[in-house]
Amino acid sequence: METLTIFALIVSLLILIKIIVILIKPKAWYNLAKTIWSAPTLVMIVCLVLSAIVLFYLIQTVTIIEIMAVMLFLALLSGMTMAVYSREILDFAGKLLKDRKFMKKAWLAIIIWLVLILWALKEILM
Fold it and tell me: pTM of this prediction?
């Protein structure tokens, strides 16, 4: 099985399991999420390492332009999904804006996004 197929299988199964658990026992999903998010530094490290691994394998097969195009699809799908919670999202965004340490907390993610953006723009414009 190819790497991209394995990635697609993993994400498909995880999403399917999440949907089934939320439909059958939403409290169980909430408890799992609460447990996972109780260790934000660990979550950041695990996600960063897994992101690097996935990106490494993706760039063996697809371009950064294709990756960014898929990110657009994912962003639009996420936006559609979260639109029903617009009030809560705006409240959360307001909270983030009031956080004086926001940039200190988000610097790594901002740098990663900037690198990806500049990489894509370089490929597009060259």
Answer: 0.86
